[in-house]
Amino acid sequence: MAEAARALNGPLYADLPGDLAVSFEFFPPKTPAMQDSLWQAVETLVPLGPRFFSVTYGAGGSTRERTHATVARIASQTPVAAAAHLTCVNATAEELDDIADDYWAAGVRHIVALRGDPPSGPLGGGEAVFTPVAGGHASAAALVAALKRRHDFEISVSCYPEVHPEAASPAADLAALKAKCDAGATRAISQFFFEPDSFFRFRDKVAAAGIDVELVPGILPVTNFANLKRMAAGCNTNVPVWMAHLFEALDDKPAARQLVAATVAAELSRRLYAGGVRHFHFYTLNRAELSYAICHMLGKRPVQELAA
User: What strands lie across the sheet with 187-190, from one edge to the other?
Assistant: First the structure.
């Protein structure tokens, strides 16, 4: 009712109050052209004053060097904190200790610690189950604990509002999150979702389980609906019927699709804000325009513009 009253009594599209925090995720580039595109996205989003930029890690550790190079460049050439994704896949505990040392030496103080999926896992199209290498960590919780022993990193982990696809039950999924937090994680960034209630119900369950962690919703602006359906199937995310209807017949109309995507993500964010969320993590897919437009609609403007 409070949100309804705000919508009816306020301007047609009012900025949110100035207590909104954002962060952005990128993936490491594969080519020099993609490197240029990524850096343009970084430079576009820096003025918004994000809490951090995170850089993902390819399946099977396939982008380890490119992730490190991208994170190190963000740390050294921007005023924004850099967060490096790190997974247990295809690496021993000793190798991960060495990688952690390299990040610490490069000035990186934030790690997004994940168990990770094998190359043929959920998003790779196969049915493979994660198996640690000899001498490797068997879980994200073990990785978090090792990182905290090594250095005083800030640790973020993942969480799944609609339950991890490999979890035996919702209770088991919550137990895995609790183990990561008990090991030293202080923030959990969610898998993407499209219904506010999915996040709110999950938040209630986390609180009821006594898990003390900052929950940050992961927001995915939809650039390609066909790809989205494939990704959603791999990570157990529900794609609502209304969303399929919205994107219907837009496959060959990219500009219209961008407008719809920005509007949907902004409205989702506004409803999450009304429910008490104050930090949003955007999966950019290395394209800044959508995330920038969504932030603009939410009232998140360049820091120097706000200070003027």
Answer: 214-216, 187-190, 154-159, 110-114, 81-87, 52-55, 21-26, 279-283, 218-219
The count of domains in the chain is 1
Which residues span the domain enclosing 110? 2-307
pTM assigned to the model: 0.90
pLDDT one-digit tens code per residue, 212-233: 999 999 999 998 898 899 999 8
Active-site residue 25, yes or no? Answer: yes
DSSP labels, 207-247: HHTT---EEE-EE---S-HHHHHHHHHHHT----HHHHHHH
The active-site residue, picked from 3, 25, 154, 305, is 25
Please report, for the domain that includes residue 99, its CATH number: 3.20.20.220
pLDDT tens for each residue of 92-113: 999 999 999 999 999 999 999 9
